[in-house]
Design brief:
The chain is of the alpha/beta class. It has 2 domains: about 100 residues, no CATH class; about 110 residues, no CATH class. Helix 1 links the parallel strand 2 and strand 3.
Length: about 240
C-alpha cells in the first residue's frame, strides 16, 4: 500500500476538499479547488448526505508512480482515481489528463473530477457488487447533474461523442482497452444526462439510497430493476428505448 508520505514536498491548499500539490502546479490546484467545492455542494444536496471525509492529491506527472494506492502496480498515467490508502481517503488527480479521456472540451476536466468525487460519495457506505454499467452510471449521471446545477452547457461535449461504438452499456464484455473503456463511459454519460432531462435529478437520490440498502450481489436483472424503479413511472419503458442501454 502506497501512502501520501511518498510525496513529502507537497503543499496543502484548504477548501471544501483540501488539496495537496507541488508548488509548480499551484494554479491548477486553485482551479481544482473551485471545481471540487462546486461538486461537493451539489452532490451533498442531491444525495441529502454530509460530504465524506476526503482530500485530493494533485500529483505531478513525474510523481505518478509514487501516488498513494492500495496495490503495488501504479494506475495508468493521467487517469484520476479514488483510494482508501490514505487517511482520509483521497481523490488522486493527475497534473495532465490522459489523452484517452475524450472528448476534450471546456467541461472535460470538471466532469472527470466530479465523476471521481461522486465515487467518494457513493463509497461513503458499503456498496455490494453490481454490474459495471450501474456502478459507473451513477457517477457519470451525478457529474452531469453537477454540471447542470453549475450552469455549464453539456451540448458541445455530448455532441462530440461517438454514439455508436459497436456495443451498449450492457453489452461490453470481457477485457476492454482504454479506448473502449472511454467509449463505455461516454455512453453512460449520454444515458445519465438523458435520464436527468426526462426524469429530473431526484432519481439519483433514490437510486443511490436504494443501492446502499442492498445486502446481496446485484445481478443484471436486479440492476435494471433498481434503475427503473428509481426513475419512476415509465422508467423501464424509457430505458428500453435508449440506444445506449
Amino acid at each position: 500500500m502506497r501512502s501520501v508520505a511518498a510525496l513529502p514536498d507537497y503543499e496543502r491548499l484548504t477548501g471544501a476538499v483540501p488539496i495537496l500539490h507541488v508548488p509548480s502546479v499551484a494554479d491548477r490546484a486553485e482551479e481544482l479547488r473551485d471545481i471540487l467545492g462546486t461538486g461537493a455542494d451539489v452532490l451533498a444536496e442531491i444525495l441529502a448526505v454530509e460530504p465524506p471525509r476526503l482530500q485530493a492529491l494533485l500529483v505531478a506527472d513525474e510523481d505518478w508512480r509514487e501516488a498513494p494506492r492500495e496495490s503495488e502496480r501504479p494506475y495508468p498515467p493521467g487517469f484520476p482515481y479514488y483510494t482508501r490508502a490514505t487517511n482520509p481517503p483521497s481523490l488522486v488527480l493527475p497534473e495532465t489528463l490522459s489523452a484517452v479521456i475524450t472528448p476534450r472540451t471546456g467541461v472535460t476536466l470538471p466532469l472527470t473530477v466530479w465523476h471521481e468525487l461522486a465515487h467518494a460519495y457513493l463509497l461513503r457506505r458499503d456498496v455490494v457488487r453490481t454490474p459495471a454499467w450501474l456502478r459507473e452510471l451513477i457517477p457519470q449521471a451525478l457529474s452531469a447533474a453537477v454540471a447542470r446545477g453549475a450552469g455549464l452547457s453539456l451540448g458541445e461535449h455530448l455532441s462530440e461523442m461517438d454514439r455508436e461504438p459497436g456495443f451498449t452499456v450492457r453489452g461490453l464484455k470481457g477485457h476492454a482497452d482504454p479506448e473502449e473503456q472511454m467509449a463505455f463511459q461516454n455512453l453512460l454519460l449520454l444515458l445519465g444526462d438523458a435520464a436527468l432531462v426526462e426524469f429530473g435529478e431526484a432519481f439519483l437520490n433514490r437510486l443511490v439510497h436504494a443501492l446502499w440498502a442492498e445486502t446481496g450481489v446485484v445481478d443484471g436483472v436486479r440492476a435494471e430493476g433498481l434503475l427503473a424503479g428509481a426513475l419512476g413511472p415509465g422508467g423501464l419503458e424509457w430505458l428500453r428505448t435508449r440506444p445506449e442501454f
